[in-house]
Amino acid sequence: MKGNRTYFASDFHLGLAAGSDPREREARVVAWLDKVSRDAQTIYLLGDIFDFWWEYKYVIPKGFTRFLGKLAAITDSGITVHVFTGNHDLWMKDYLVKECGVILHHEPFITKIGDEVFYLAHGEGLGTRSKGFKALLAVFNNKFLQSAYSALHPGIGMALGHSWSNKSRLAKHISLPFIGEDKEDLIRHTRSMISEGCDARYFIYGHRHLPLTLDEDGRRMIILGDWFSLNSYAVYDGMTLTLINEPLSLLPLLSL
Q1: What is the CA radius of gyration of the chain?
Q2: Collapsing DSSP states into helix, strand and coil, what is residue 147?
Q3: Is the predicted pLDDT of residue 165 greater than 50, yes or no?
Q4: Against a cut of 0.85, is the pTM above it?
Q5: What is the pLDDT of residues 94-110, one digit of tens each?
Q6: What domains can be seen in the chain, in order of their start residue?
Q7: Are the CB atoms for 25 and 62 separated by under 8 Å?
Q8: pLDDT at residue 230 tops 90
């Protein structure tokens, strides 16, 4: 049965052995999904759900059985689940759509929840001035290169993908502190969207791994954080949008 709350989370990086044990992190995510599904109307998962994901025609990555099963159970119950691709799992195609019943987004999504307009995105590349990062995203999104990668044997393709993800800043336990409103890409992007006429009142992102709430001129921007040191997520109850950092000790684990 659907409830009346909308939940937002991102950056689970399932499968990455950094920050916490990957099986324990999956257990926390599944426990959180089980808890919020009791009063959720809709759940938005805003990207980097998996630390690496590649869909071949007949093959998907090993693991994540309990997480995928929980997604399917939630959508089967009538709750809508939206999944956004991130820069670590942008190669999702239709497996989660067909098998788990989710709605998949590859681009920022503007939607109305209750009486308010929301702008939702993972956040990679938005507002960036880095030519290197823009070039990397262009490579990742190149259809020819994707086809070439899919031609690799899954054993090779998956090994290369996991090797790449294990060299990320996150895998090396490197986090970037807040660098100021004028330098943060997502703050700059939000202000640009507003100046261009976007009528959203709420802007929600993942990607940055920095739980943050910024209120400005009647708008609220939230960066959701990650699931390594805090179980951070946002909830909208129809009146208020709140970012929650829930200590690990307060979230019971489902047995794996």
Answers
A1: 18
A2: helix
A3: yes
A4: yes
A5: 999 999 999 999 999 99
A6: 5-250 (3.60.21.10)
A7: no
A8: no
